[in-house]
């Protein structure tokens, strides 16, 4: 009987503290929830601060150098390239060297609008934004230009593949970049930065490869004329015009034996120059030796030409 009374008193003692125990547990649960919410908010903030870059032709040459730079800066990076094997190997290597890096590969033929549109959409879906686009993929005429041969019999249709990749491909990249960058919140001084790979062959006569020169000159014109259109949306667009760089678009390595080769680090410096200054847009940086030189457009030949072209811009059509 005495033991039974003792048990009852013990139960009353426990029950009397039950509300306090429940309250303490509730406080602890709320504290854990608050800490988790703060952690989630921190992750969202850090995710928003981490820039996402798309690099076309990113598995080799210029694109590879830029991809490695972006990864070293902690960016999310999407490597877009037609070479599946090289792209996957690059992503695997960089993932091993930099475990914290977020880097993905997208197989992409830049001469296809559909290919590029799918790749950009997948990158945007995965990372939630696109801040930087390096429109870089390019090919050469591989030693002999179809424009340089004069047939004695019937003329042969020239191959326009170099225009499809080096000009049309960049036009597609720029169009998609503008679309996705315009979705970014208008905070700060820039919604995004587009950098296109042109060439000094677009500035000077390049008779061994007229179609390549035409494509690169077209890229320069595209950049300079698009910049005012997207300026109000806080989107930058600029171009790089490198001198001779040792890349895999050359037909063979012997080509570089007697050349003065510009180091890839100079080109990376050109990219950094554009990214660090949101005020630069519509600019062309010639990449030569150790130098990054901004090249302004030609002066107007006369005042009438200047007024006419400004009138077109005021009218909004041509």
From TrEMBL:
GO molecular function: oxidoreductase activity, acting on the CH-OH group of donors, NAD or NADP as acceptor
InterPro entries documented for this protein: NAD(P)-bd_dom_sf, Sc_DH/Rdtase_CS, SDR_fam
One term under GO cellular component: cytoplasm
Keyword Oxidoreductase set for record: yes
Keywords: NADP, Oxidoreductase
Name of a matching Pfam family: adh_short
SUPFAM superfamilies in the record: NAD(P)-binding Rossmann-fold domains
Top-level taxon of the source organism: Eukaryota
Keyword Glycoprotein among UniProt keywords: no
Protein family: Belongs to the short-chain dehydrogenases/reductases (SDR) family.
Official protein name in the record: Uncharacterized protein
Organism: Cytospora chrysosperma
């Amino acid at each position: 009987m005495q033991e039974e009374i003792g048990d009852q008193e013990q139960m009353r003692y426990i029950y009397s503290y039950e509300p306090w125990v429940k309250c303490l547990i509730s406080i602890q649960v709320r504290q854990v929830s608050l800490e988790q919410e703060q952690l989630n908010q921190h992750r969202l903030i850090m995710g928003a601060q981490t820039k996402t870059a798309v690099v076309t032709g990113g598995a080799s040459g210029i694109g590879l150098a830029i991809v490695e730079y972006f990864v070293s800066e902690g960016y999310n990076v999407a490597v877009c390239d037609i070479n599946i094997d090289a792209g996957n190997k690059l992503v695997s290597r960089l993932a091993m060297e930099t475990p914290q890096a977020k880097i993905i590969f997208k197989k992409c033929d830049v001469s296809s609008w559909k290919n590029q549109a799918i790749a950009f959409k997948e990158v945007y879906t995965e990372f939630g934004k696109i801040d930087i686009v390096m429109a870089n993929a390019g090919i050469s005429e591989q030693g002999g230009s179809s424009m340089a041969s004069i047939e004695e019999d019937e003329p042969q249709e020239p191959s326009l593949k170099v225009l499809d990749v080096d000009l049309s491909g960049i036009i597609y990249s720029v169009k998609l970049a503008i679309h996705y960058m315009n979705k970014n919140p208008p905070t700060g001084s820039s919604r995004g930065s587009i950098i296109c790979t042109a060439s000094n062959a677009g500035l000077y006569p390049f008779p061994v490869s007229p179609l390549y020169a035409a494509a690169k000159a077209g890229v320069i014109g595209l950049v300079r004329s698009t910049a005012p259109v997207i300026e109000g949306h806080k989107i930058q667009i600029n171009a790089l015009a490198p001198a001779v760089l040792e890349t895999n678009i050359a037909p063979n390595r012997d080509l570089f034996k007697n050349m003065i080769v510009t180091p890839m680090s100079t080109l990376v410096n050109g990219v950094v120059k554009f990214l660090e200054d949101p005020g630069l847009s519509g600019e062309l940086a010639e990449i030569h030796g150790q130098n990054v030189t901004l090249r302004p457009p030609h002066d107007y030949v006369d005042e009438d030409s200047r007024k006419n072209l400004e009138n077109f811009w005021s009218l909004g059509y041509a």
